[in-house]
Amino acid sequence: MYAVIYLMDSCQLAVGVTTWCTRVYFRSGVAAALFFIIVFMPNIYANAMSLTPATFNSSISPGCIVSYQIEVANDASSIVNESVYYKDVPSFARGSTVSERSKRGIGSWVSLNSSMIMIGPGQKESVEVGIKVPVETKSGNYFGMVAVSTTDPLAGEIAHIIDLTVSEEKASAAEALQITTFKLNDSSFFKGSGMVNVERKNVSELSVDLQKPAILEVKNPFGVTVLAVESNQLTDSILCPGQSVSDTFDWSVGLFSVGYYTFSLSEKDAQSNDMEKRVLIISPFMILSIVLFVFSTLLYIKRRSSLAQKF
């Protein structure tokens, strides 16, 4: 679109200049020189720069952040100072009116790590582009540009087009989150209490609303759920695609627990997986109870034996 507009403007300018020059300077040869300077010189300067990639296309959820790099190359034979800046472009959200489009630019979303770069002949420099979509953003297509131009007044500018598709659609934790870490404190198995660390990653293309804390379920040796513990990380945030969240759980199954207990995350908090822990728990109180029971039994047997010898 921009190339067509620029081409049309250049053609109109070329026709106007040519007509004017033909009338006034046709025989002097100045018309050809003037036409060349006005129409072609900016393009020559602009061609001394190149920018990759030319476009950035991404689907993103409100509240999420994306960052990437663009590479600016100096194809000229001398050092150039180049300005890097954002240029707003009307966004074309589906179903929006012209007045709505004019209010939906993404200038406040975009950040650049540098506004001026110096590039030697034949050299390249990278510029990092960060985009943070506000939480309240509505679904639609949004556009913007990162422009690069030299300090030479005759030079043109080149632009990198940003094309974003914002979607308010969310995925559930059970569909999108994959458990990547499930770790228990090994020293806790002999006291019937301890801590579990769990890390979950969003492996879908949609964001997830973490409105409720995750729940750790503990089952006794008979398969009965005896404990359901909420995560210590109380959160009401959005987990974007590719991001991870860590949870910790404090658990205790009682002073007289013994046997193999199974630890797993609730089905609603992550995808179905085999990442669960089955551990043998023998609490100190249970060990003490067993020792006292054995000691009492032996003492009872000994006393009965003594009594039997007397009679």
Q: Which shape, going by the Cα principal axes?
A: elongated
Tell me about the largest β-sheet.
5 strands, mixed
Number of helices: 5
Rg over C-alpha atoms, rounded to the nearest angstrom: 35 Å
Number of domains: 3
CATH C-level of the largest domain: Mainly Beta
CATH architecture level-2 label of the largest domain: Sandwich
The ordered H/E elements are HHEEEEHEEEEEEHEEEEEEEEEH
User: How many strands in all?
Assistant: 19
The main sheet orders its strands as 2-9-8-4-6
Q: Which percent range fits the helix content? A: 10-25%
Strand content: 35-45%
Mean pLDDT: 75
Report the end-to-end length measured between terminal Cα atoms.
114 Å
Question: Which class do the helix and strand fractions yield?
Answer: alpha+beta
Low-pLDDT segments: 1-46, 90-103
What is the CATH superfamily label of the largest domain? Immunoglobulins
Reported by name, the CATH topology of the largest domain is: Immunoglobulin-like
Salient structural properties:
single chain; about 300 residues; Immunoglobulin-like; five-stranded mixed β-sheet; four-stranded antiparallel β-sheet; 5 helices; 19 strands
